[in-house]
Queue: 2 jobs
Job 1
Amino acid sequence: MRPKLRKIQVSLEQWQGQPVAVLRDPLGLMERGVAIPRSIVPLLELCDGTRDAGTLRSALELRYGLRVAPDYVDKMLSELDEALLLENERFAQAYEESVERFRSAPSRPATLAGTAYPGDPESLEGTLKEYLDMVPPQAEDMLEIEQLRGLVTPHIDYQRGAAVYAGVWRRVAAAAQSAEVAIILGTNHHDCHKLFTLTRQSYSTPWGVLATASDVVDRVAAALGKEEAFAEELHHRSEHSVEIAAVWLHYLVKDKVCELVPVLCGSFQKFIEGDGQPGDDEGVALFVDAVREATANRRTLIVAAGDLAHVGPAFGDRYPIDVVERAKLSSADGELVDLIASGDAEGMFLLVKKGGDRRRICGLSPIYLALRLLGETTGKVTGYAQCAADQQGTSFVSICGMVFS
């Protein structure tokens, strides 16, 4: 056997007073993690599918000077296999079974209920109302309702983003209540290979189920190719970006019928690193045309659920974000937000590409696609914030709210 490690989550923790690395499956096929001594972490890098257990032992000693007992690597590989962290037939079978369970379930569960937000419907309603009450009503809240066609909303946790969430969802409340279908474009934070990931599953919230517009999903899938559109469907099960927006939508529409089209948007990294750009990509054009055609006769709300920059040591930067750096972040975000507000999808992308996406704009793909779907449009900023991302206050996630008419 030549073991190959899957893309996994690794966190450095303490166990019984000893430093360990805890390995977890981002897809959640197995709830339990695997803890290994931090000194043995180099073994993970060697598990690339080219070495058997004996070669792994030799490589550990030759490259890193680590000597282990003859059966140590075998036991380690067995534990990784048991936790479904290796790419092999056992994982493939478990993955397919999980996909079938997801598709056959009554709906996609509200996975964050009870943790990121209250699971009790009355408590949740009170929480969101409290957020809305933080933002004083403005005269324009009730203006141009018929013209409001889309929005940018964060997908950070509600507590840190409360004011920005409240500012944008208050403004689109009436438009959401009159919408027949909402296209929610959320960032796919999983290690993914597809630009678009669809699902026919409906999304549950503590108030019930938001039905998915399966006819729209089917038309878009037919345009993209069903294998392409549903290849990574299981990502919907644990991805929070669409769920965070769906809860706000459901709170506003109450019992009115507004169907959902949940779309997870993959990374634009290949465009940032290469010569191409999304405006020239055939798949992007097919997606935009198919969504427009499928919703042409319905009152449609376009929702981009994406955050802006991720900066500081928590995200791999070598320097802390102090007052001066935060001012620079505000300026850089302002330039990006201005392009978004002008409806300039290509300009927004090129600005991020020019900087090599060094600020890690995780909402790049959903916001870009929202602008493409909206076409000629004008946006109005409803809020902006820099949210602390570590206990030291040296890392930040920036977010904004925006409505489009």
Job 2
Amino acid sequence: MFTPRVAAASLSGESDAVWARRVAPHVGAAFLGGVCLDDATREAAAAMVADRDRDEFLPDDPVAFIAAELDALAGVPLQPGVNVRSATTEPIREAGVICAEHGAILEVNAHCRQAELREAGCGEALLADADRLTAHVQAATEAGAAVSVKVRAEVPGVDLSSVARRIRDAGADAIHVDAMDSESVVSDVAEATPELFLIANNGVRDQTTVREYLGYGADAVSLARPTDRTAVLERVRAATDEWFANLQPRP
């Protein structure tokens, strides 16, 4: 899906085209966003900004914002992606059209755990509602976009392997797993859905963490907060390149 097998993961209110250009020498992909697409998620994000002094992307027209940000990455040597939040399906389709036109991955956010976003029906709430989640994936694939779904481990009542199979069957290309403190869940998902490109996230900082996730079967690793630290990016890129250079083909 991309090389080198390192992705820069989205950071609310920070991961824009300027950020992606800065990290491009070290990564194979960069996920902009998260971008709230519908009224419910935009109201939730605005409340988080007002109540908690968070940074969020809240342009007047989120789909036009996505198009402009992707335009700004034309010619940059990386695979762009856009992490989007929506409680409803139609905005996913609209964003999917834009991503398809720009050769970008649309990443459905089934990951955020803030109460406001869960109550709006996205993030973890979407992860726990497989029917709505698969409808989102189908809408994006029908629009022609490559699709990733970002998920989180340790959500009560959610079996990530089962979720992975559902989104695979709905047409997803990738799953982006925030392993939390359950790193071995990456192995479970990799075994359940070898067809999906699996990006492992959480605590990726150095050779040890890179080798752990890739050893569990991940196809790539990602990092978010440390993208502002060049030394960390360089370590992760070097460790990932080394792993795949030395990986022996299966007999």
